[in-house]
Specification:
Layout lengths: L1 E4 L2 E4 L6 H8 L6 E5 L2 E3 L14 E6 L5
Parallel strand pairs: 1-5
Antiparallel strand pairs: 1-2, 3-4, 3-5
Pfam families: ThiS
InterPro entries: Beta-grasp_dom_sf, Mopterin_synth/thiamin_S_b, Thi_S, ThiS/MoaD-like
Protein name: Sulfur carrier protein
């Protein structure tokens, strides 16, 4: 199944969830936000939100600096 994640095409297994996609992209467990097709997905829904063919996923991580 093909998705667009952070603007790049990715081939992922059928039935992948938001949580699984995030784990493949980053090891961070805090400071992460996800939007699917321009809709923010609450962290509590990541495990139960399955992704579909052609979805656009944006995974954003907070960065600290000065």
């Amino acid at each position: 199944m093909k998705l667009t994640i952070n603007g790049a095409a990715h081939e992922v297994p059928e039935g992948i969830t938001v949580a699984q996609a995030v784990r493949e992209l980053t090891e961070q467990t805090t400071g992460v936000a996800v939007a699917v097709n321009d809709e923010v997905v609450r962290r509590g829904a990541w495990e139960s939100t399955a992704l579909d063919e052609g979805d656009r996923v944006e995974v954003l991580t907070a960065v600290q600096g000065g």
